[in-house]
Design a protein that fits this description.
- This protein has eight helices and no strands.
- By secondary structure, the protein is an all-alpha fold.
- Helix 2 crosses helix 4 and helix 6 packs antiparallel against helix 7.
Length: 205
């Protein structure tokens, strides 16, 4: 049974104040709270939605929060989740930016900011490990992840090409598995994929 609208509102507002660590940390927090602790969404739909959000232009953590809100309470839920996710973070960012601009050269403030850098790295590393345990369940997944990391670090291939190769590899492997029943099969979302690649050049603009 899903949460009430009031309960969901309180959760999204709280998430807006505690979702530190960038996209990786925010996604890990959402998975822990929504899937593992509260069990509002199953792990499978969450990971599938995450995969789609990674393909779309824009911030994937915000898109995932909007999808989760929509999944729980429709369009209004998606709007509330998105606003609660981003507005508290904007307020915190403005406050920290003001402190840095006015007092960034003060030794005590500079030392505190340096300490935060190490904490952020730890948050990101923990989030990546948590997501890896969920997403990398097959030897092919590990191979694709390592190969993509090497290619991106060496700037040997663009990110959209890596996504296309990974999707193709997943399709080929799934064909070797047990085929689903005709009633369970679904057409491959070619239009969604083509639209995503068409919008990709505008992601950084």
């Amino acid at each position: 049974m899903g949460p009430s609208r009031r309960e969901a509102f309180r959760f999204w507002l709280k998430l807006g104040f505690i979702s530190f660590g960038g996209p990786a940390g925010q996604i890990a927090i959402m998975h822990r709270e929504v899937v593992e602790r509260r069990r509002w969404i199953a792990d499978g739909p969450f990971m599938h939605a995450l995969n789609v959000c990674m393909l779309l232009p824009g911030p994937e953590a915000l898109q995932l929060a909007i999808w989760l809100g929509w999944r729980l309470h429709g369009t209004a839920g998606g709007i509330v989740a998105g606003l609660c996710f981003i507005l508290p973070a904007m307020a915190i960012l403005l406050g920290l930016s003001f402190v840095y601009a006015m007092h960034g050269t003060v030794p005590l403030v500079a030392a505190a900011l340096t300490g935060l850098q190490a904490t952020v790295i730890a948050l990101i590393a923990q989030a990546l490990l948590r997501l890896a345990r969920r997403a990398l369940v097959h030897p092919l997944h590990w191979l694709l992840a390592v190969a993509a990391l090497v290619l991106m670090i060496g700037r040997l291939a663009p990110f959209p090409l890596l996504l296309a190769i990974a999707a193709l590899a997943g399709m080929l492997v799934s064909r070797g598995a047990v085929a689903p029943a005709p009633s369970e099969s679904a057409a491959f979302p070619w239009r969604t994929l083509i639209t995503g690649f068409a919008l990709w050049p505008h992601r950084r603009r």
